[in-house]
Write a structure and sequence with these properties.
By secondary structure, this protein is an all-alpha fold. Helix content is 82%, strand content 0%. The protein is built from 29 helices and no strands.
Length: 637
């Protein structure tokens, strides 16, 4: 009788798709009934915008008489400004001969003759492109930001590596800092530190400091406990153990922290030009504002060259064996390069001669016009198909639905995918966005991010799977991914602007090519991480290549794929906001408008906060999905 009861009850169990299907039908019915109500339209004159603008006016009026500014923030600004002036003065005093010789010498010592020649060619390229002074200003700004990041980040990272409690405290802060799009840093810093090189250096430092802390903490935490115990048993103090054991053993990984800090700083210095930071960012912003790729391209190339040179130098340093001695030949060549550069300072002009430069503005603009005329049908077809098939319908859905219905949908989706905590976080973020008065523009930004993420994941999955299953394809693709991940975010706007002009699709295209490389890497590593024994067992059981992929490799690489989705969302959101400079509109445009027009500062500031809230919501949902067990495992348990 009991067996009959069990079988009867199991026969009435709902299929797995019934509840999601019922919820979808319910939401569709609610949307049809309440469409166009409680939509929270955007208002440029919202009271909260005006209140923030008034706050800025008050701060500007009392910057030199309020004690908090007079005795604290102003001194920080003056100190950072003095440090930047020092770096700039030294670099200008060296001139192009001194900088070329010293950089070549340092690169030769770091990585040998290949890295040395790369540095010599890279530094010379700044002059050949006609951007010597802007490049020196950018080097000075990066130097100040990286120095401050390391001075603060390495001690905090060491502390976090030695203390689990500190690590648990610091990690959520670093998570939020890395989720925040680059634009979000600028508004509060302009509010408290005004504009100029000091504010740009501080913004760059804040953006670049998370990897310095994270990687240093990881390096210290991974030091062998046996070595630490041996040091303690021999009577070493905590400080002796730190300086004699922890730091020497963590040296190579900490050098990687320096590398990543420099790369992050280079990504930020361009954007920092929006708050009047000097350097190559000015040329890129000017080219964007005029929609002239010819003005942007040389500055973009200079940024990429600078990133590649510094990346190769720091990576070579990180890979060197700390116990290996530098060869006398390398020391002699490096000394000769440095001596030659310094000796030529009084002989040659400090600024790169103008007659040894290449003007590419006109040819590049002509090439862009040719591409626009000849590829118009293709680029317009792609842009219009994406806009009318995906962007417009999704934007219409999100902006015409009641705000409470969207919030409820996000709550249920987050609950289903990532659990209660992520659901409450998503709901809190959306409620805050509604209160800030930027709901409509947030939904427009969410539309662009959603479409860009879908395209990114499709391309990333295809390329990642292909690379995991074809070693030759992976070997060809990996150097391209390395180069793509070295480039600062702004560089990706160049091809997008050249092909598609200033439209929403331009931001989507740029964000896709910016976010695809890490997605491809994570998918490839996840599939390659499937145990070979499992693959062999599936093949022995008669699985076809397609069955092996869909039934074994993709399910077992689920965590890596979810992490790829998380990284794709974070990077896409950052790039879509930057796309406000090339016609993306929504929150990105609000932020840019807030910097360019003083009366819109409040709207830009609030839009930056809303962008952070949107990023936190999307990040928490996907991170939670990564930590939850798969539906198959939940069913089996």
């Amino acid at each position: 009788m009991s067996s009959t009861t069990v079988s009867a009850s199991s026969g009435f169990r709902l299929p797995r798709w019934a509840i999601p299907a019922g919820a979808t039908i319910g939401f569709v019915a609610a949307y049809v009934i309440f469409r166009g109500t409680a939509t929270l339209p955007h208002d440029d004159e919202a009271p909260q915008f005006l209140a923030v603008t008034d706050l800025r006016e008050w701060i500007d009026d009392h910057r030199n008489d309020n004690p908090f500014f007079l005795y604290f923030l102003n001194y920080i600004r003056l100190g950072v400004g003095a440090l930047y002036t020092l770096f700039q003065t030294v670099l200008y005093a060296l001139g192009w001969p001194g900088i070329t010789g010293v950089m070549g010498a340092l690169a030769w010592l770091a990585g040998g003759w290949r890295t040395g020649l790369l540095a010599l060619a890279g530094v010379s390229a700044f002059g050949v492109l006609g951007l010597w002074q802007s490049s020196v200003d950018t080097l000075a700004l990066v130097g100040v930001a990286v120095l401050l990041s390391l001075v603060i980040g390495i001690p905090v990272g060491v502390w976090a590596g030695l203390s689990a409690r500190v690590r648990r405290t610091v990690t959520p802060v670093l998570d939020v800092m890395q989720i925040m799009p680059t634009f979000a840093y600028l508004a509060p810093l302009a509010l408290f530190f005004h504009i100029g090189a000091p504010a740009g250096a501080i913004a760059t430092m804040i953006y670049a400091i998370p990897p310095a802390i994270r990687i240093t903490a990881l390096a210290v935490a991974q030091v062998s406990p046996t070595a630490v115990e041996a040091s303690t048993s021999l009577g070493a103090t905590r400080w002796q153990t730190l300086f004699k054991v922890h730091l020497p053993l963590a040296r190579s990984t900490m050098a990687l922290a320096v590398n990543q800090t420099i790369m992050m700083a280079l990504s930020m210095v361009v954007i920092a030009n929006l708050i009047s930071a000097p350097g190559l960012g000015g040329d890129i912003i000017r080219g964007l504002s005029r929609a002239q790729v010819g003005i942007m391209l040389p500055a973009g190339v200079a940024i990429v060259v600078m990133a590649v040179v510094l990346d190769r130098m720091t990576l070579a340093t990180a890979r060197k064996d700390p116990r290996a001695r530098t060869r006398r030949t390398d020391l002699a060549v490096a000394g000769a390069l440095a001596a030659a550069g310094l000796a030529l300072i009084p002989v040659l002009p400090a600024v790169w001669p103008e007659n040894v430069t290449i003007d590419v503005v006109a040819p590049v603009n002509d090439a862009v016009r040719w591409a626009e005329e000849n590829w118009y049908a293709v680029t317009t077809g792609i842009k219009d198909a994406t806009t009318y098939a995906l962007l417009n319908p999704l934007e219409s859905l999100l902006t015409s639905a009641p705000w409470w219905l969207v919030a409820l949908a996000a709550l249920i989706l987050a609950w289903r995918v990532s659990g209660v905590r992520a659901a409450l976080t998503a709901l809190a973020c959306l409620l805050a966005i509604a209160l800030l008065g930027v709901w409509e523009h947030t939904m427009q930004t969410l539309t662009t991010v959603t479409v860009a993420v879908l395209v990114t994941l499709v391309i990333g999955l295809l390329l990642g799977v292909a690379a995991a299953r074809a070693p030759r394809f992976s070997a060809i693709q990996r150097p391209l991914l390395d180069a793509a991940q070295t480039m600062p975010a702004f560089v990706y706007l160049l091809p997008a602007l050249a092909l598609f002009g200033t439209t929403r699709f331009t931001a989507i295209f740029a964000s896709v090519i910016y976010a695809v490389p890490p997605v491809v890497r994570l998918v490839e590593d996840g599939i390659k991480g499937v145990p070979p024994t499992v693959v062999e067992a599936a093949v022995a059981a008669g699985s076809t290549p397609g069955q092996l992929l869909w039934k074994v490799q993709l399910p077992m690489a689920r965590r890596a794929i979810l992490l790829a989705a998380n990284q794709g969302i974070v990077m896409t959101l950052a790039m879509v906001v930057i796309g406000g400079l090339v016609g993306a509109g929504a929150l990105g445009y609000d932020v840019v408008s807030g910097f360019s027009q003083r009366t819109d500062f409040g709207m830009g500031f609030v839009a930056g906060v809303a962008t952070v809230l949107l990023g936190v919501m999307l990040d928490r949902i996907t991170q939670g999905a990564d930590r939850r067990t798969s539906p198959r495992k939940r069913k089996m348990s």
